[in-house]
């Protein structure tokens, strides 16, 4: 691998590479470091969780096939986290003959995938494309006002008249996903993918519970609305 000048996209970006293969992990760290990225590595799911809980990463490169907790399970866990960690972009590495893994990874919230074996230059291009898309996203509001309630999107915390309202982890993440697309409908299947429920029944239950916590009249919701034939929409003040 030859060293090249780092691109503007790579400057000061911190990546986490998760792969149980020592050789691939070390080669990726060397190559990505030469291209201007800061790189941390983890050999398995538990080690990755510890790093993700302690540090902020601009992107996670995640192998699907790992012993113990696989990459799909780790993606599901990551997307269930509130705050900055839950929004971390994910690029999954899959075996080329496993299309189901690619589909499942995208359904769970991965931003892109790359089949093994891969060309390192293609990996760089895909990472840079993801980071450019992230940079182009509008800034997420720190707080969302819902009548007497306020939702802190970074902390995943809900208050009513200043008093804390208990949310389950799934409810907090669902509310955050809806807040990111405020005033626009989010499909039930998209929300179901966040919650690993292909039928969407868990989403309906969570929406009902959230309405009881944020709506003055849950039977006639003002803030968490159903969009017939499409899904749900959050309409903050």
General description of the model:
The chain starts with 13 loop residues before the first strand and ends with a strand. It has two domains: 14-136, Rossmann fold; 143-234, Orthogonal Bundle (Arc Repressor Mutant, subunit A). It is an alpha/beta fold. The protein contains nine helices and twelve strands. The chain has a five-stranded parallel beta sheet, sandwiched between helices. The longest helix is centred in the middle third of the chain and has 17 residues, at 120-136. The protein has helices at 22-34, 45-54, 71-79, 83-86, 99-107, 120-136, 169-180, 188-194, 201-214, and strands at 14-18, 38-42, 59-63, 90-95, 112-116, 143-146, 149-152, 157-160, 163-165, 186-187, 224-227, 231-234.
User: Given the C-alpha coordinates, what overall shape results?
Assistant: elongated
- Uncertain spans: 194-198
What average pLDDT do the residues reach? Answer: 84
Quaternary status: single chain
